[in-house]
Amino acid sequence: MSFVVFLPTLQTPGFRGVQNFTWFTFGDQALRLGWLLDPLAAVMLIMITLVGLCIFVFSIGYMAGDKNFVRFFAYLSFFSGAMLGLVISNSLLLLFICWELVGLASYLLIGFWIERPSAAAAAKKAFITTRIGDLGFFLGLLWLYGRSGTLLFYDGGNGCLESAGLAMVGASVTFIALLIFCGAVGKSGQFPLHVWLPDAMEGPTPVSALIHAATMVAAGVFLVARVYPLFSLGAINGVTSSLTVVVWIGVTTALMAALIAIAQADIKRILAYSTVSQLGLMMVSLGVGGVAAGMMHLLAHGFFKALLFLGAGSVIHGCHGEQDIRKMGGLRRLMPVTFSTYAIGMMALSGVPLFFSGGWTKEEILHVTAHWPVSRLPYYFLLAGVVLTALYMTRQIIYVFFGDRRAASQRAHESPRVMTMPLIVLASCAILFSVVLTPAWPWLHHYLTGEPAHLEFARLIQPTLFLSLVLVGAGVALGIGIYRKAGAQDRRRPADTDPLEFAQPQLFRFLANKMWIDELYARTVIAFSWMSARLSDWMDRYFWDRLVRGFGAIGQLFGTFTASVDERGINAGVDETTVGARGLGRLMSAAHSGQIQTYLGVIAIGLLALLLFYAWLA
Amino acid sequence: MIPTLQVFLIVSAALFSAGLLAALSRRHAIFILIGIEMMLAAANLNFIAFWRFNPQSQPPTGVMIAIFSIAIAAAEAAVGLALVIAEF
Amino acid sequence: MSSAAFVLIAILTLAAALAAATLQKLMHATLSFAVALVGVAAFFFLLGAEFVGLVLVFVYIGAVAVLIVFTILLTRRDVGKDRGANWSGALLAVAVFGGLGWAVFKTQSVAIAAPHIRALTVKRIGEALMTSYVWPLQCVGLLLTAALIGALVLVMEEKR
After folding, report:
1. C122, A615: Cβ pair inside 8 Å?
2. How far is it, in rounded angstroms, from Cα A570 to Cα B41?
């Protein structure tokens, strides 16, 4: 179906189909939602449905035998529905609703193996961390609504992304954009809220592939691309302060995550950090103005990262649940299909040009970053990131597929057909995409920006191409050089120590512990809230309690005084009256049977009597 | 027939009587509670209707009273049901 | 205010209310009670008090009716059937309805059509709640808190 809707957007450049409707009317304000189909949504639809299909098929094999098989697929379908809703919504509110649904699905799926405490903790961490970002998103949404009075993106000239709506937003647009960006930071695992994404790998591997690599984390990038007019409003030379923030956060994330990835041992964690790094790359691209380049990288990344994760899943499946790459090795012979597809994914990720999709899109991003007027620094950082990416991917491949067989790979086996087929499909997508994305015929680029495309081979040859070729080559060569003998017994170094760890133990520990960011948070944010909770507890116990008791004592004093007056002066008189009242009371108590219904009946009769009186008067 | 205030009052009287019927003739406490809630709803309907048919409806007193009475009815239901649970 | 809608809602509400008052099974009666409340909420919408209608739906159908259902399920022991109407109650109820109806028909001043009034926005309700009705609001809050604590205490003593 997504291909059907893809066609009209393909034929007309700048196609934009909008279907708005009123959700409900509240007094004199109507809340309106809507669906939107434009090139951005259409390509996302294709990517999500295609990758989703492959992952669904893969999960049949991967989850076979799990006792909660049905629950797993229910969650997965729930996620896909919410994600598709997110992509095609034409209202920031609807987008936010789907956004939260997606977050919920992610929470449920990370904690899918609920009996593992680490999975439950990771799910909670993911949920809470993204919630911090979503708080910003929601504030931005409210602010935007307060300013422009609508949350529809496009509404025949009145939407909040169209000129009239943007004019109403005015000067606060920078803050609104940054608040919305908070949501994207949380969801897309950008620094400083990236900590949840690697932990999210506790979930089943197909989930990591679908949610934490291909689609959901891309939602943040998609969100920024969607509300791009808010970011770029009032841009001078394509630069606004909000976009600058986006760039720097992206650069920090990209470089830092790539560094951390080098020192990880868990096969999925490496991929997770590489996802974080790639998302940072996309953010940079959006920030420097290359929306189309960022989105193209997002699409290509969706395919090859899903491929890598599924490959990792296949490896883990083959190695009976072992995830430590240092315990694998020599799997090339045992799992040929997995190996070849994984290699394709690896080359796409490291950005080997010409035949692999990631190469072209990375090229594009580097190209736009190089022309950013503010600073050349992001460009150099990204170049370093390219080298690092090639390095850690080479490291992973060498550890897993080459060298001698180690503990976990002794009894490894190739995965069943139902798991290898999606791998092959995704691998061919990763290669086919290189044709689609080739700069010689940049129709997708123009399709996203709405301009006609021309075929022109001259664009193939660009200086950045050679540069990145050299850099990727350097990264791969470096990787091979360092890790060639990694698994083998060395006389100076035990076999399970990383060569880098051997050379630079301090630095390696720093990276292996994720730059101690988790620990930093535990010491600062979490400790702070713990302290404040303790402080309030103490205040409650000692200060407020004493205060209340003091008031109580005053009241008691007063009470004693009045009681004495009562005793002497008033009681004597009252006593006399009570004797009379007691007789009356005995009489009345006969009527009080304790049956509520009798009382009710009497009340009803009284009502009738009142009405009769009224009739008599009238 | 355009609904006048009169027909609203008739409907609310009928609702009230149904609630009364439930409250008077049932044995079980939950039924009596339901009857009382229905009578309260009838009263709320009256308040809203009187507010709506009053040309000078500023401030919206009827609406306010209806809101408060809904809140009070909720409190009452909570306590009543707690009693029922504690009893059985 | 459309009369067709009015007649429809009136029939629905009254039928459901009668069913709630007379059905033997407790669960059936509760569900028809919920339907009757939906009818009342629809009346509120018809009368232009959307906010109160929504509050009614949330509080009654969302909380009270569900609470009743929970209570029924929790105290399954002797719950199930209850006698329907008994004669004295029915007689009294019919008499009250007759009296009230007669009084309403007799009063000519209520036979009026709806005047045109300003739409009641949530903003206005909120302003009224925070200005003229702020004391009642606080009292209701206090009452709710008291009811909450009371309900908890009642149920907790049972546990002990």
Report:
1. no
2. 46
Please state the domain count of chain B.
Answer: 1
Q: Which residues of A touch B23 (CB under 8 A)?
A: 597, 600
Identify the closest residue of chain A to C53 by CA–CA distance. Answer: A26
Q: Please report the ipTM that was assigned to this predicted complex.
A: 0.87
Taking an 8 Å cut-off on Cβ atoms, the answer to whether B11 and C10 are in contact is: yes
CA distance A86 to chain C (A): 27
Contact B19 C21 (CB under 8 A): yes
Inter-chain touch B13–C83, beta carbons under 8 Å: no
Report chain A residues whose CB lies below 8 A from the CB of B24.
Answer: 597, 600-601, 604
CB of A14 less than 8 A from some CB of B: no
- Domain residues for the domain of B21 are 5-87
Q: Report d(CA A251, CA A385) in Å as an integer.
A: 9
Interface contact B25-C83, CB threshold 8 A: yes
The pLDDT assigned to A373 comes to 75
Residue with more model confidence, A9 or A485: A485
**Rounded to whole angstroms, how far apart are CA atoms C116 and B55?**
7
- Minimal CA separation from C100 to chain A, in Å: 8
**Contact C106/A618, CB-based, under 8 Å?**
yes
Please report, for chain C, the start and end positions of each structural domain, with discontinuous segments joined by +: 1-107, 118-160
- CATH code of the domain in which B65 resides: 1.10.287.3510
Q: What is the pLDDT of residues A606-617, one digit of tens each?
A: 888 888 888 787
C78 pLDDT exceeds 80? no
Fold (CATH) for C1-107: Four Helix Bundle (Hemerythrin (Met), subunit A) (1.20.120)
* Span A95-129, pLDDT tens digits: 888 888 888 888 888 888 777 788 888 888 888 88
The rounded distance, in Å, linking the Cα atoms of A76 and A82 is: 10
Region A519-542: mean pLDDT is: 74
- Report the C-alpha gap between A317 and A324 in whole angstroms: 13
B83, B36 Cβ separation under 8 angstroms: no
Specify the pTM: 0.62
Q: Between residues A80 and A168, which one has the greater pLDDT?
A: A80
Alpha carbon distance A519, A583 (integer Å): 78
